[in-house]
């Protein structure tokens, strides 16, 4: 089972008061589908955001949900006007001369529905909610648009009573994520008029599970001088893998029951930055096309990792600078309110363990025996590695991670 808990918060303060699992991802999706045009921009934004975060936090774990962040920021553009709206959508990677704004929101509407409803075997809950100061008058047009395109709602909140307000928001997210995401809101350090909460919870089940009895304590080499003990999961099975001849890394692809695909990428020692800098749509596609299927001894640490990231600086570096200044124009949200973004806080939690669905054993044991007699290759994720999780039907980047220390 792969269990991921994630939430993203966007705080606005007042100024005054690709694809099939191993084939071309485009083959899985009807080209006429509204969400189809979102995939290139969303994946490009995902890798750009990920690289900025990795560069800003050297030597640390990084774990984010790019498509969920894209969805939250695109939704906020419905309440923005003028250059603020243009900056938001262009910052997300959309060329507004080629893709009309209406098509962007229609695409996210379809994508949101697909991610929530198309795969019953992959447990996923995602969405957005706005908590607005009860003294402000929400514009009905904005409320209708966020409900129509993003299935979101706006809730009146008394931010003067922060204890009560935080309890309201925590309970909302807890209920939406089946109790998996809790206690999000710290003490308030500034007056607030609006908080956008974006949440996603994912639980996947491996097609090929790890045997819990094979998990044992082993060394994980955090760096040349630091080693920690971790429970290391093991399986010996027919697995998709690649020794990359272009980049200094090895990788394996594991699948969920349903639409989830996971790449575990193991850079050669000292080559993490080289591999991360090369991450792109083309690299992922090349990997998908180049994977081999063979017997593999696979070792992956059983981990639980959490992290909180303030995305304000990163988004500013990516071109969304006016959002955080008095130049911001969110006049489409509420009457008589000058709102600007003060914080973009992203929280994520990753749990990896052994659980999966045992594959049925097909008749014809002779073929299986011949396969097992071949000498298996071995890949051990006992040093820093990269993890990417895609929904291969929509080719959405659900999660991107860099695991430096699994403890």
TrEMBL record:
UniProt keyword annotation of Transport present: yes
Single GO BP term: glucocorticoid metabolic process
Signal peptide: 1-22
GO molecular function: serine-type endopeptidase inhibitor activity; steroid binding
Alphabetical list of SMART domains matching this protein: SERPIN
InterPro entries, alphabetized: Serpin_CS, Serpin_dom, Serpin_fam, Serpin_sf, Serpin_sf_1, Serpin_sf_2
Highest taxon in the source lineage: Eukaryota
UniProt keyword terms in alphabetical order: Glycoprotein, Lipid-binding, Secreted, Signal, Steroid-binding, Transport
Span of domain Serpin: 47-406
Compartment(s) of residence: Secreted
GO CC aspect terms: extracellular space
Function: Major transport protein for glucocorticoids and progestins in the blood of almost all vertebrate species.
Recorded family membership: Belongs to the serpin family.
Alphabetized PANTHER family for the sequence: CORTICOSTEROID-BINDING GLOBULIN, SERINE PROTEASE INHIBITOR, SERPIN
This protein's name: Corticosteroid-binding globulin
Originating organism: Loxodonta africana
Taxonomic lineage of the native organism: Eukaryota, Metazoa, Chordata, Craniata, Vertebrata
Gene: SERPINA6
């Amino acid at each position: 089972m792969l269990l991921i808990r994630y939430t993203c918060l966007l705080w606005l303060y007042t100024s005054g008061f690709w694809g099939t699992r191993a084939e071309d991802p485009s083959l899985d999706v009807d080209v006429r589908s509204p969400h189809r045009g979102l995939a290139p921009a969303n994946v490009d934004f995902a890798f750009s955001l990920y690289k900025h975060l990795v560069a800003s936090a050297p030597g640390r774990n990084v774990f984010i949900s790019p498509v969920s962040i894209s969805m939250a920021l695109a939704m906020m553009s419905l309440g923005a006007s003028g250059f603020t709206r243009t900056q938001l959508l262009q910052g997300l990677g959309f060329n507004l001369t080629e893709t009309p704004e209406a098509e962007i929101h229609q695409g996210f509407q379809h994508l949101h529905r697909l991610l929530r409803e198309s795969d019953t075997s992959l447990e996923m809950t995602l969405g957005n909610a706005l908590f607005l100061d009860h003294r402000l008058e929400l514009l009905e047009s904005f409320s209708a648009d966020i409900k129509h395109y993003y299935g979101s709602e706006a809730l009146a909140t008394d931010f003067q009573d922060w204890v009560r307000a935080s309890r309201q928001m925590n309970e909302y997210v807890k209920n939406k994520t089946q109790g998996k995401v809790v206690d999000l809101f710290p003490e308030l350090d500034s007056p607030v008029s609006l908080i956008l909460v974006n949440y996603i919870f994912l639980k996947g089940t491996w097609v090929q599970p790890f045997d819990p009895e094979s998990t044992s304590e082993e060394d994980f080499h955090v760096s040349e001088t630091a080693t920690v003990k971790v429970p290391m999961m093991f399986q010996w099975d027919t697995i998709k893998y690649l020794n990359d001849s272009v980049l200094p890394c090895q990788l394996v692809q594991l699948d969920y029951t349903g639409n989830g695909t996971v790449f575990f990428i193991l850079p050669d020692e000292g080559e993490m930055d080289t591999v991360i800098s090369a991450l792109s749509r083309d690299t992922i596609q090349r990997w998908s096309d180049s994977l081999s299927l063979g017997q593999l001894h696979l070792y992956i640490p059983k981990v639980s990792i959490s992290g909180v990231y303030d995305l304000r600086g990163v988004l500013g570096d990516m071109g969304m600078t006016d959002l955080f200044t008095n130049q911001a124009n969110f006049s489409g949200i509420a009457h008589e309110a000058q709102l600007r973004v003060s914080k973009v806080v992203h929280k994520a939690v990753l749990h990896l363990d052994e659980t999966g669905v045992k594959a049925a054993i097909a008749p014809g044991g002779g073929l299986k025996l011949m396969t097992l007699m071949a000498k298996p290759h071995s890949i051990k994720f006992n040093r820093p590695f990269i993890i990417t999780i895609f929904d291969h039907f929509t080719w959405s980047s659900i999660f991107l991670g860099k695991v430096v220390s699994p403890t």
